[in-house]
Amino acid sequence: MFKKYRILKWSIISILGIIISLFIFGWWFMSLLPSAENRPYITGTQVSDLPYLSKDIVPKRGKILAIVTSTDTMGATDKSTGYELTELSRAYYVFQANGFEVDIASPSGGESPVVIDDEDMGLYDFAFLNDSLAQYKAKHTIPVHNINPELYEAVFFVGGKGAMFDFPKNKSIQFIIKELYQADKVIGAVCHGPAALVNVTLDSGRSLLENKKVSGFTNDEELLLISDAETIFPFLLQDKLISKGGKFNEGSMYLENISHDKNLITGQNPWSTWKLAETMITQIGYTPKYREITGEENAVKVLKVYETEGFRKAKELMKQMISIDNKPMQRILIAKHGIIAAMQGKIGRFFSLVGLTSYAKKISKDFEN
């Protein structure tokens, strides 16, 4: 009996020790994340506050069409969805800064459902929310059946899980893509946006995607966060793009990756939006206007080096960026990738990324954008 109670006592002590250790680690981990003190300033960002948009204005060069989803729920579930704000706002301002007027359309027209992830919001995203003209366009989208493709130099399909439901079978969307593509104009799509491409048939009778290098939200990215995605969505995007003849270019999970196949430019996920939009400008025939790289993009660069060259090289790059070049670093993104590693059971990777996050805090002036 005594031995039994002794075992029980030490079991309870061990469990309490683990709980306390986890609590202390959690508190320390949260302390690594940036302070929210500057959030009120960021949320009030105006277009006039951003030199990229307010200075050295580029003369008008034409129009680009952005298309967002009209779907607000994921299939037969009660899970809300829509288009991703950051994927629209960042591309919208790249197009605008480079001299293009942007129209926003959707399958149903009118106000489209929007998904806003507070942790991913930056200066340009809040500027978009505070931009009366941009908001008018987003809340009064043009029905795609009213679009005349001849008016545009390019079309850009914004991601968001709703796109999986109303983009693929929409005949007007297929017509817009076909007409622009065959006129050697630019087709861009990011994240779930490439769902618009899967049923497009050219006048030759061939699939638009046949033998095209293409990217989109990967199976791994989808299934990690939505384990039953195969039953919720009409298809997994990666599988569908491949089945239509696409040569799928899969990059690292949740890191920037684009595919550029002549006038077809596609991006893997939201972190690909900046590069994709600027590549579209290049493909149209212009050199993209200079833009200061954001803290999020710098964090992505560090994570890419971590993926390919390891912890030490990533740490060296981080030191160069923050301490020497005085560049912003959004360390919360590095922390998020640590959490993703933990979700995958990659404990060593988790602690390495937490170490990078801690190092970023140590050398940072907490200057993020």
UniProtKB/TrEMBL annotation:
CDD domains given for it? GATase1_Hsp31_like
**UniProt domain DJ-1/PfpI: residue ranges:** 82-281
Q: Which residues cross the membrane?
A: 7-30
Taxon lineage: Bacteria, Pseudomonadati, Bacteroidota, Flavobacteriia, Flavobacteriales
Q: Which InterPro entries match?
A: Class_I_gatase-like, DJ-1/PfpI, Prot/Nucl_acid_deglycase
Keywords from the UniProt entry:
Glutamine amidotransferase, Hydrolase, Lyase, Membrane, Stress response, Transmembrane, Transmembrane helix
- UniProt key word Hydrolase: yes
Example GO molecular function: hydrolase activity
Q: What is this protein called?
A: Type 1 glutamine amidotransferase domain-containing protein
Sorted alphabetically, which PANTHER family does this protein's record hold? GLUTATHIONE-INDEPENDENT GLYOXALASE HSP31-RELATED, PROTEIN/NUCLEIC ACID DEGLYCASE DJ-1-RELATED
What's one Pfam family here? DJ-1_PfpI
Say if the entry is tagged with keyword Hydrolase.
Answer: yes
| Coiled coil spans | none
UniProt lists the family membership as follows:
Belongs to the peptidase C56 family. HSP31-like subfamily.
